[in-house]
Amino acid sequence: MTEPEPIRLSKRMSELGLASRREADEWIERGWVKVDGAIAILGLKVLPHQEITVDGRASKEQAKRVTVLLHKPIGYVSGQAEDGHTPASALALPENQWSDPANRRNAPPPVRRQDLFGLAPAGRLDIDSTGLLVLTQDGRIAKQLIGDDSDIEKEYLVRVRYTKNGGKLPESDLALLNHGLSLDGSALRPAKVWWQNDDQLRFVLREGKKRQIRRMCECVGLQVAGLKRVRIGNVMLGKLPPGKWRFLGAGERF
Predict the structure, then answer these.
(1) Among 62-71, 152-161, 169-178, which is the least confidently predicted range?
(2) In whole angstroms, what is the distance from residue 57 CA to residue 172 CA?
(3) What integer pLDDT is reported at residue 107 of this predicted model?
(4) Whether residue 242 sits in one domain with residue 126
(5) Which phi and psi angles does 53 have, rounded to 5°?
(6) Tens of pLDDT along 4-59?
(7) Known catalytic residue at 126
(8) For the chain, percent of residues with pLDDT exceeding 90
(9) Across-strand partners of 101?
(10) Are 49 and 74 contained in the same domain?
(11) 253 domain-assigned
């Protein structure tokens, strides 16, 4: 039987769900991680059977990291500023925090600007698309949503126009949207696509290639007139207004 190869400690911690690789490296540098009872050093490689323990200070720091849900408007980029466009994270300001008017008794407490520093997008949403965008300081959530093995559903409402001869999308092409298309030389994972109404499709995907839905639609003669993400995993956009954000609830899980 072949012995397993040792892997970098930070990668092993990420696999175990203890921290993101970046967090793990930070904790190792601070002396907060032990392997088989000995303080670990950066770059250490471990085997699956070795015991990894993390200092309580790391858990306390991790608990302070926040995740917010933003309704990204059209015209904002989801990542870094580019070509003069503003990143969506610029909207994560205390004055843009949303409080559901139907639930004023449980209105969120005031938030300080410094509490929102370091928020990074966990996923992309095109500049000409709107809807739910997750911004987080927590590497575990980022890995859950955009890691290589992420399998979390994202749901979209997509308004379309059929561009071939003024007709209607054939059932065979709707079937292709569900399964059978390729982009960038590789087959897409099976999707769930159905008509919401006469000019709007509902897409549920488990991957997120660049401009994937728009490119899928082009493959079957559809032009996208509007695209809105309404769900990520079990978390809904709901009534959150464009340009506003709220904290991920204590009981919410993707």
Answers:
(1) 62-71
(2) 57
(3) 63
(4) yes
(5) -125, 145
(6) 889 999 999 988 888 888 889 989 999 999 999 999 999 999 999 999 999 988 88
(7) yes
(8) 63
(9) none
(10) no
(11) no
> Any idea what the CATH number is for the domain that residue 197 is in?
3.30.2350.10
Q: What pTM was computed for the model?
A: 0.81
Burial 195-217 (b: 16+ CB within 10 A, else e): eeeeeebebebeebeebbbbebb
Do 241 and 137 sit in the same domain of this protein?
yes
CA atoms in the 13 A half-sphere facing the CB of 114: 0
- Asked if residue 241 is part of any domain, the answer here is yes
pLDDT band at 104 (very low <50, low <70, confident <90, very high): low
The residue ranking higher by pLDDT, 101 or 18, is: 18
Which residues, at least 6 apart from 5, have a Cβ–Cβ distance to it below 8 Å?
none
Q: How many domains does the chain fold into? A: 3
Catalytic residue (choose from 55, 100, 126, 184): 126
* Contact assessment for residue 234 and residue 125, using Cβ atoms and an 8 Å cutoff: no
Q: Domain ends where: 43, 61, 79? A: 61
pLDDT of residue 1: 63
Please state, in angstroms and rounded to a whole number, the distance separating the CA atoms of residues 160 and 214: 10
Whether 164 and 228 map to the same domain: the answer is yes
Say which CATH number the domain at 90 has. 3.30.70.580
Domain identity same for 124 and 73: yes
CA distance 160 to 194: 12
One-letter amino acid identity for 84? G
Q: What is the mean pLDDT of residues 93-98?
A: 94
pLDDT of residue 164: 81
Range of the domain at 28: 7-61
Structure-token match 């250490």, residue found: 44
Q: Are residues 239 and 125 in the same domain?
A: yes
